[in-house]
Specification:
two-stranded antiparallel sheet, OB fold (Dihydrolipoamide Acetyltransferase, E2P), alpha+beta, 1 helix
Length: 118
């Protein structure tokens, strides 16, 4: 009787350990899937060109352009070549200003049509 209880408890412990191991990987998979910002931008905005420095947003995967001059706010960069647009890069970006909702919760949305090092 004691051996049967021991075997049953050991089997439960092994099963519980496997579940904990599998669950431990779930947050990483979820984070990877949710790293890209979700953006909904209205069409028909004004096309502008801005020179500035790319900074990281507070949310994962969000990039903002902080203009070199002017009193405007930061621009939330939507799209663009990641070889040109990355945190710390000084860039010249042309894009269409839009209004909309974003999981980034920062900056004025700017859909990039072209970008180059400044």
């Amino acid at each position: 009787m004691e051996i049967q209880r021991f075997v049953a408890r050991a089997a439960c412990a092994v099963a519980l350990g496997a579940l904990v191991l599998l669950a431990g990987n779930a947050p990483a998979a979820y984070a990877a899937a949710s790293a890209a910002p979700v953006v909904s931008v209205a069409d028909g905005g004004e096309e502008i060109t801005v020179v500035g420095t790319v900074i990281a947003g507070v949310e994962a995967g969000c990039l903002l352009l902080r203009p070199d001059i002017g009193i405007g706010s930061d621009y939330l960069l939507i799209g663009g070549d990641p070889k040109v647009i990355f945190v710390g890069a000084h860039v010249k970006v042309t894009g269409v200003v839009g209004s909309g909702n974003s999981t980034c919760q920062q900056g004025t949305p700017l859909t990039v049509t072209s970008a180059s090092p400044a």
